[in-house]
Amino acid sequence: MSILLILLPGPDTAIATKNTITGGRAGGMKTVFGTLTALLIHTFAAVLGLSALIVKSAFLFSILKYAGACYLIYLGLKSLWTLKKPGRIQDREEQKPEAKQVNCYRQGFLTNLLNPKVAVFFLTFLPQFLEPGSNTFTQFMIMGLTYTILTFIWFIIYIYLIHQLSAFMKKPAVQNWMEGITGAVLIGFGIKLALERK
């Protein structure tokens, strides 16, 4: 079930696709490392009960939800904005590798961390498999780490496939098309998240 949930496209997949196309394999991997860091934080938050506070508090849930929605819409608008300036994509390609990779890591990290649906997943899905009477901390940690490792394995395969197509995707016309699609998808995810009920 975890594998099926990981394969299901979402904001993490959209941002990983975008950054692999624009930043190459290194950009994609940095994005994934950001996502994995956020997943580890979600795991610890669930273990410590912080996620439960967020899910049970309408105020905290709304803050996280709208922050995540605004960030996704911001990334989407930023992608669409590059289409209005023909030189923007080329300027971004000439950006220093260190700065580009830091941006990729931050985008992957914030996209996952600010998604309250991930916290809800850790609190509603994983507890079904806890063994009563055993150490819940250890069980939660094992399941959270397993989910994180499975996510890492999938994204390695996914980024490799996207990178293999990069020669085709590096064409300006294709990049413009992908920027537009990715921007629209991110905005769509942001709006969907903003309208999500507690």
Total strands: the figure is 0
Poorly predicted runs of 5 or more residues: none
- Helix count, per DSSP? 10
Indicate the multimeric state: single chain
Mean pLDDT: 80
Question: What is the 3D shape?
Answer: globular
Helical amount among residues, as a percent range? over 70%
Task: List SSEs in N-to-C order.
Answer: HHHHHHHHHH
* Major β-sheet annotation: none
Radius of gyration: 18 Å
First and last CA, distance: 23 Å
Estimated share of beta-strand residues:
under 5%
Structural class given helices, strands, pairing?
mainly alpha
Task: Using brief descriptors, characterize the structure shown.
mainly alpha; 10 helices; 198 residues; globular; 85% helix
Task: Tell me what you see in this structure.
With 198 residues, this protein is mainly alpha-helical. 85% of the residues lie in helices and 0% in strands. It is built from ten helices and no strands. The chain is globular. The mean pLDDT is 80.
